[in-house]
Known about the structure:
The protein is α+β, with helices and mostly antiparallel strands. It is built from eight helices and 15 strands. The chain folds into two domains: 3-31 and 140-310, Aminohydrolase, N-terminal nucleophile (Ntn) domain (Glutamine Phosphoribosylpyrophosphate, subunit 1, domain 1, 4-Layer Sandwich), CATH 3.60.20.10; 43-129, Alpha-Beta Plaits, CATH 3.30.70.60. It has helices at 16-26, 65-83, 109-117, 140-147, 196-205, 216-228, 233-243, 285-289, and strands at residues 3-9, 34-40, 47-53, 87-95, 98-104, 123-128, 131-137, 156-162, 177-178, 186-193, 246-253, 257-262, 271-274, 278-282, 306-310. The strands form three sheets. It has a six-stranded antiparallel sheet with strand order 7-2-8-1-14-13. A five-stranded antiparallel sheet has the order 9-10-11-12-15.
Amino acid sequence: MCGIAGLIHRGKSSNVGAEMTSMLMALKHRGPDSTGYALYGEPQDGDYVMRLKVAEAEDMDRGRGIHKVIADRIELVEGILRDHGAKVKSKQNATEYALRYVLTHDGDTADLAKHIEETDGVEILSLGNGLELIKDLGDASDVSSAYNLTSFEGTHGIGHTRMATESDVDIRSAHPYWAFPYNDVSVVHNGQITNYWIMRREMERKGHRFMSNCDSELLAVYTAHNLANGVSLEESLRRSISEIDGVFTYLVATKDQLGMAKDTMAAKPLVLYESDDLIAMASEEVAIRAILPQEIDTYDPYDEEVRVWQA
């Protein structure tokens, strides 16, 4: 079933970490297996923020040996950063297996990311100038607490509560998804893509990487490919309705935009609220009311509807 949510503030920052946590907790019943956030802050000019994991949550039950494995993987990652001329400004361990780096780098970030992901067991969750992607097992309260998200200041974000259906219950299969080379794009999705394997092979032939077998990751790769080739976010969303088969509603965020698209059948729900300074949307109205308890007007987007908002 799954639940998706997103919000964007126009012209100002807000505590989007706490707001997204409230919205996702209201959607907990739609997906108890994992929770994910893509939050957009305002880093210093020239800084990159990299979120990565060096193990899966369930690996931590393998005994003391896993701690040595994790330490070795981190050492390899930091060696690669040095080899590529990246300078680490700060490093944080959200959990033993999930890390956050702030770094500067003048080279090719896609090449850097590919080299890091050649390390066994390492996956970059996001690498961007504004995007920070956090996902783990458990509900929004669990993930927000573990990763200290209730104080995250930013302009916009999207999130997802997952009920596993066709893929594993692990961080790799949790949403949101990110894809390079367009480094600040993220996607959450509710639905099923029926031409997933055809589209995936097409994207792989064009040089794109996939880290899971979840059909939702295709939407991130597809969007990143379009944006990297000069297609606007709105046009990419419109093309997806005719080029991607299935039943879907999905949200896309970039460094300064938030967009949504519904397929031709519009079977997957989305409720939308819009004011002069805030846009919020979710699979159910209860998630919007978690941050806007006052009397508000909402509406359901139509079939094939595409909308894009600017931060």
